[in-house]
Amino acid sequence: MESYFMxxxxxxxxxxxxxxxxxxxxxxxxxxxxxxxxxxxFDQFWAINxxxxxxxxxxxxxxxxxxxxYQADKSFIQKLxxxxxxxGRRQTLADLLxxxxxxxxxxxxxxQGVKMSPQTPLQWLSEHFSYPDNFxxxxxxxx
Length: 143
Description:
Blueprint: H1 2-17, H2 27-38, H3 42-53, E1 67-70, H4 93-100, E2 107-111, E3 114-115, H5 122-129, E4 136-142
Parallel strand pairs: 1-4
Antiparallel strand pairs: 2-3, 2-4
Helix pairs in contact: 2-3
């Protein structure tokens, strides 16, 4: 389980930062992340995970938003989606859903048990609603 968690975390880091954070961490940092999560010690976990959530003044957005969309009886969907479009406009959950579901059917979206507004910015979602593996796990239900 630990190796799967670290693998997923590295994938999220690659999407957000080109693997610059996890690859430069020491083995003790990896261990601290895992044991903090395993033992339900938020402070221990967050002391390291905070680095994975940070952006810089030169680059205020992640490269891509790590997310997975889940639907009943289907495999999850994962695509490359940037937090801002070519014109620099912040992408929203509605923009992500249009990219994943071009047919744009009426869907109910739930993230961590919360029905999410389609106008929520993706960068904000990634910073505040990511799971410990740094992915946003989105449940989509047909209405």
